[in-house]
Amino acid sequence: MTLSKKSISGKSKETSHPHVLRFWRNGKEITLENIAPSRTLLQILREDLNSKGTKEGCAEGDCGACTVVVAQEQNNELVYTAVNSCIRMAHSVSGHAVWSVEDIISNDGTLHPAQSSMVKAHASQCGFCTPGFVMSLYAMYENYTKKNIAITPRIAQSALTGNLCRCTGYRPIIDAAVSMNQIEHSQSSQQNSKTILKALKDLKVSINEDWKKIKKGNPKAAASYALPQTLQELLHLKSEYPNAQLIAGSTDAGLQVTKQFKQFDHIIDLTQVSEIRAVEEYPHHIAIGAGVKLTHAFEELLKDRPQLKNYLMRFAGLPIRNSATLGGNIANGSPIGDSMPLLISLGASVVLSSVQNKKVKNREVLLENFYTGYRQSILTQREVITWIKVPKPHSNEILRAYKISKRFDDDISAVSLCINLSISNGKIAFASLGVGGVAATPAKAYETEKFLLDQPFNMNTLIKAKKILSKEFKPLSDMRASAGYRKQLLENLVQRFAVETLDTAQVQDKSSSGNDVFWMDLSSTDSNDLRFVKLKPDLSKSSSQDLK
Ligand SMILES: Cc1cc2nc3c(=O)[nH]c(=O)nc-3n(C[C@H](O)[C@H](O)[C@H](O)COP(=O)(O)OP(=O)(O)OC[C@H]3O[C@@H](n4cnc5c(N)ncnc54)[C@H](O)[C@@H]3O)c2cc1C
Ligand code: FES
Ligand code: FES
To answer: Which atom of ligand 1 is nearest to the CA of 317?
Structure first.
């Protein structure tokens, strides 16, 4: 964790930025003028608003020292989320309510429960991480305590996946979060939410007026930080300014600012485009708007496929999932991105939209055909990903998704493998495998799928399949994993799939060596609660020769 002075003083050389930044903070509207497009929320809090409680540690979304809470109106309710202010563009909170650690203490100096519970649980030592933890607790207070939902240690652990503490240790911090269950909140906090909702609506009117004025006076300057509200507006802007930097959650794009010290002169931010912030349900698929935050997108995917919880909850940490979008993950196109192998295995497609001759054009492609090379795709400069269409589960679907990374939480995959089969009369009637970390792009395992089709669903078939899968790809060695390890992982993950999905008798039948066999304990429905248990003695005596 290094302190990066350069990154917090990175003001743009440009002097005139027409967009007034308006947001709600601590009971009043904050209005900031002349904020360069690439300045981050952390920078304006610390430098312009002199709120130095929010810290900068890594400046890349990893440590949580910069955590603040933002709230946005959705369906007439306030949605509170903890986010990393270090990589979030300042203008992205236009029209939001924002809380930093200074804002939650009462006027008379009484600590907020998120603060007093940390004090009582002795949950801070050097204190550098503490403002970030307090703000994650504050989001929990709004989302659980105030709604009378108990915070369990598991919920607290999951909500704190984006916060690192190097000296206290996590147990007292989790205790602090859980102890908020004892707090009774008052009616006045509900009235407060209503006041904020009303303030945000008024703010929106002022922001729309600002926007109209800028567009009229200086249309080019309007794109310096454009926050289109409709899809039409977004596509027209992208067509007019194809070189402008498109951003969504800025959890990838923001790192170009904080780590490569890049300054974007023109940004088009798609996160307020109402059409693509929605999830729509159809008889055979769900359509997830490209601007939908991962937290929401994953909730929707889990409705049909709850077994994916463990995989999806391991995507970064909660503050990243609260900002990042599904469209951003796909567009970024990292070969080790997590959503793509899964979406490929589910047969998902992406809709790409643009404006041509003043008309909106859409084209739809299967995700596996979207990528053309390392971080390259068929997306043209005037196009935007608008929808991700995910087919509903087919009958007898057997689906498993695996991510192997060095850390359990908040880490990028070395390899991921998603296997989606459907079985009919004991034979494999459908096979779709998405793989990450083994090629220049997220990939589909065509050869393995071809082999699997019409084969009996048994251990022999899967043993052959794992060999074919590991030969199908030529992974690279890099700092995350060697090529050999990646190939071995592919085999091992098919083996794990076999152990999890075939009945015990078949696995026993194929066991022979005498070593202990460790089996994932699937009895727990809480997917964060992964435990490995030793197999029953009779099964572990015979063992896993053929499984190796
Ligand atoms: C600490 C940390 C942990 C992370 N962990 C993971 C992880 O576990 N797994 C993983 O896969 N990724 C991870 N990431 C990477 C990142 O969070 C994801 O790629 C995320 O989904 C990007 O989405 P975004 O909305 O923030 O995109 P942005 O950063 O806003 O944009 C990324 C790129 O996509 C383009 N873009 C965005 N939306 C669209 C659109 N609708 N149409 C066309 N182009 C678009 C932008 O122009 C930009 O070039 C991590 C990042 C950080 C900082
Ligand atoms: S400073 Fe580390 S996450 Fe923002
Ligand atoms: S208290 Fe020192 S890093 Fe957490």
So the answer is: 3
How far apart (Å, rounded) are the C-alpha atoms in residues 453 and 430? Answer: 6
Over residues 130-144, the pLDDT tens digits come to: 999 999 999 999 999
Residue 424's Cβ-side half-sphere holds a number of Cα atoms within 13 Å equal to: 7
Ligand 1 binding pocket includes 247 (Cβ within 6 Å)? yes
Q: Tokens for 421?
A: 């089969």
Question: Are residues 126 and 163 located together in one domain of the fold?
Answer: yes
- Is 413 part of a structural domain of the chain? yes
Let me know: does 78 contact 191? Beta carbons within 8 Å: no
Q: How many A from CA of 62 to the centre of ligand 3? A: 15
Pick the atom of ligand 2 nearest to 1's CA: 2
Q: How many CA atoms, within 13 angstroms, populate the side-chain half-sphere of residue 155?
A: 17
- Alpha-carbon distance of 472 to 547, in angstroms, equals 19
What is the pTM (predicted TM-score) of this model?
Answer: 0.90
Of the candidates 459, 545, 464, the residue with the CA atom closest to the CA atom of residue 504: 459
Ligand 2 pocket list (CB less than 6 A): 56-59, 61-66, 84, 86
pLDDT of residue 148: 92
Q: How far is the CA of 64 from the centre of ligand 2 (A)?
A: 5
Ligand closest to 124 (CA) is: 3
- What CATH number has the domain bearing residue 37? 3.10.20.30
- Would residue 531 count as lying in a domain? no
Distance of alpha carbon 530 from the chain centroid? 21
For ligand 1, the distance from its centroid to the CA atom of residue 189, given in whole angstroms, is 34
